[in-house]
Specification:
The complex is a heterotrimer.
Chain A lengths: L1 H27 L5 H6 L5 H11 L5 H13 L13 H36 L4 H15 L2 H15 L14 H35 L2 H8 L4 H38 L5 H10 L3 H29 L1 H4 L3
Helix pairs in contact in A: 1-4, 1-12, 5-6, 5-8, 5-10, 5-12, 6-8, 7-8, 7-10, 8-10, 10-11, 10-12, 11-12
Chain B lengths: L2 H27 L2 H18 L1 H4 L31 H37 L1 H15 L3 H12 L3 H27 L3 H8 L4 H37 L11 H9 L6 H29 L3 H5 L5
Helix pairs in contact in B: 2-4, 2-11, 4-5, 4-7, 4-9, 4-11, 5-7, 6-7, 7-9, 8-9, 9-10, 9-11, 10-11
Chain C lengths: L4 H4 L16 E10 L6 E11 L4 E5 L6 H8 L8 E9 L2 E2 L5 H7 L4 E4 L3 H4 L6 H12 L4 H14 L5 H4 L9 H13 L5 E5 L7 H18 L2 E6 L2 H7 L2 E6 L2 E7 H6 L4 H8 L42 H5 L5 E2 L6 E2 L4 H7 L4
Parallel strand pairs in C: 3-8, 3-9, 6-7, 7-8
Antiparallel strand pairs in C: 1-2, 1-4, 4-5, 9-10, 10-12, 11-12
Helix pairs in contact in C: 5-6, 5-8, 6-8, 8-9
The chains are: A mainly alpha, B mainly alpha, C alpha/beta.
Amino acid sequence: MAGYLGRTFVQLIATLVGIVTVVFFLMRAIPGDPALYMLGDFATETAIVALRERLGLDLPVYQQYFLFMERAVTGDLGRSVVTGQPALTEIISALPWSLSLAVGGLSVAVLVGVPLGILSAIKHGTWIDTAIMLVALIGISFPVFWVGLVAILFLSYHGGIFPALGAAVGGGFWTQIHHLILPALVLGLSVAAYIARLTRSAMLEVLGQDYVRVARAMGVPERRINFRFALRNAFIPILAVIGVTFAWALGNAILVEVVFSRPGLGSTILKAILARDYQLVQAGVLVLATGVVLINATLNVLYGVIDPRMRTGE
Amino acid sequence: MSQITADATAMRDREAARRRRRTAIRRYTGHPGFMIGAVIIALMAIIAIGAPWIAPNSPLATDLANTLAPPSWQFPLGTDQFGRCVLSRLIYGAQISLQVGFWVVLISLTFGTLIGALAGFIGGWLERIIVALIDIMLAFPGFLLALALVAAQGSSLTSVITAVAIAYTPRVATVMRSVVLTIRPRPFIEASHAIGLSSLRILIRHVIPNALPPVIVVATVSAATAILAEAGLSFLGLGVQPPTATWGSVIAEGQAIITTRPLISLSAGICIAIAVIGLNLLGDGLRDTLDPQMRRQTGGKML
Amino acid sequence: MLQSKEFIGDGSKVDDAHSAGRPALELRNLVTRFPGDDGAFNIVDGVSLSVLPGETLAVVGESGSGKTMTFLSAIGLVPRPGKVVEGEILLDGTDLLMLSEEDMRAVRGTRLSMVFQDPLTGLNPVFTIGDQIAGVLHAHRKLSRTEAREIAIGLLEKVHIPDPHRRIDDYPHQLSGGMRQRVLIAMAISLEPQVLIADEPTTALDVTVQAQVLELLAELREQSGMAIVLITHDLGLVARYADRVAVMYAGRVAETGDAEAIFERTAHPYTVSLFRSVPSLETDTASDLLEIEGQPPDPAALPAGCAFEPRCYLGHGRQDCQATRPALRAVGESSHRAACLHSSEVITEGTVE
């Protein structure tokens, strides 16, 4: 297990370095002079020169890269040109709002999607399966921001059940939860549809394995096969599904934050993009991608716990 | 083997081949999802191409004397806050969505297939590097990556297509590589090596064609994802710029007046959903019919 | 259909050929049907077979002959959308087709059990073998964890797994193929079934390991008196381990009888072809697939006459063979039967060289 953890850790570090590299080159991909891009067409020559110097743009690219890497490791991700705050501070202050949405949404997604996917697989070929898959198909096909709008229209504006906009920044805990429910449901249910589809195929694959047939031939009850025996095998692909979906859900979360006018990483990045606040974009993208990588590393460790073959590296 | 036996065998083989072809066609026509999806996408394509003849009005003509009109014979879905015909804008919007879907699939399929096939086929350090790069790219949420790329390149149809294609190519490459890995050890590949065919030739003539079915399924589904991504970008105002009609921008424009004229945003969302449902049904249908064993290979990597 | 279960076990119904005792398992006119693109077809087409307690019945045939499907039908595990549509499956006199799903589950493992071809995929990789054996025990008996563990260790000992106290906590990937098949056998016999169906139990194993596993089955049969159905395409195994043989072709029994009778007085051309295709010692035994000229028929498109006619060295082109589908009838002594119009010709020709 120690070796397995070590390998996972080395992989994690390598991927993180890769991510910083991608972000570095992504921002160098902007055509023209980033300093000019950031300051707009009416910037004075002195301001541009000053910014170029601060960003290290006057250095050769490889030096810029190492400087960027060095600063990233120490947590210096530059400053927002709009607020003048360190970019990381801005991002960190947005983080709790995004985290609560992500945790809320993903909980809904997993709690709804995984059981429905399993049920669908167990009832393979019956009307229950067809009905669940039809609902899931519709769920993955409507754009999440549209579902958000419709939810606001019917449940907030007409229904008056949930507040339409904002996250009750500065409000009490329960008020904030009340504001979280609708966005989390909208995000969660769209992700649940994906999870249900992928969980179903993972579970079906496991149920088609020889060892399931062996268990049946030995008279192990169907319920026990489904929920004790096969579920443990399906757990790994299901975890992988959740890992894959997580990155995707973060993309959707940007849209949900915008529709519900919630603060958060997504809306911070979007605002930064519109304001050409380029170091803030960099910092936001970096933090989001790091989150995805950390989640996937955690899942990797979990695979090792569930599947003994992983630990020995077979 | 006697002549009679040989003839009988040949006849039986022909008959078997005919039956296989017949059942293959019937597998498609008998798959309701596939048929519905194919019909939806065909209709969408007809609407998009025939937009100038089908649309009752110009999608761009504003009429400030007739803003937010309710549905009528002349404006079946009413008009928006600039007096433009909503139905016409939706009909023209199909052009953008389908173009994005088509080009993104074409680009990500081409590059993803090549990259994935190279990695899986050649192996060694090249494979390790490509896999590492793909893993890194997959750490960025696809939509976020598209967002950042569009922001960097400026908003135009080309940059939307490029951005979404770049964001989704690694996913196609992942599937392609895993499929090629299962094909590489098969006897006919080894036989091709043995008779001295060049690796590139084997790759193009044998490996890629045999690996295509699952990749086509992924491509169909990524067309759906691409349409959703384009709609999201348009909704955020980062897609194809106004006044061009796109489904996402119709929703965004309708957002401000959704309480009084909900039909505008609602109908645009339904257009997106129908196109995406069509592509997903098509993808599911292809997966069920193309090759039963590939379900395993593509499962879990469809995002 | 309204018969009560007690009367189904009436001994008088037993095949007169085996009046010596009631068969442990008897299939009567079993038909298993699959829906197909061109209409439904029978993958098992009226199979009647029986095996006595303490006896080994070998079921032989090419892949696709319906031999596995026959016994998946018997144990109630026909893959969807297939269905048993006709016949009786008598396990010690009880018709299994009359049982409810739950009663049938209770029968599997306790009275009728099955070992499959591939031991590498037959064990669940994420549970220890002890857990998996205990899982079977718990499915049928109320036992504490420690009791189940004790029994499991005993079973591992019984199938000659060295150091069972340690091995019980191993995961499947820590065991060799032969050991895994032993574990699967231990699971199958854990509740002392009357009948054990072994579907090509050694095909995936090395030759030396094959012999060990089969010796183990023979030994277990001696100890418990259970009946064994050995599904195989390896006639070498048949000669050594089987008391009786059933040769299957295209979902039907082509020839059945005592092993000796089948070997000495072969009465069906298909059986003859099978013997001829047995690889000699010089050829590569690892890929000992039966090679008879031509393909086994598509069960969805069987010829009108004898299913073997197109490939038959004796009957190919004969009008009577193309016209009538031969029924199984007695040849020689009472238990030896063959489904061939010209079986007398086959016997007089003499076969095995």
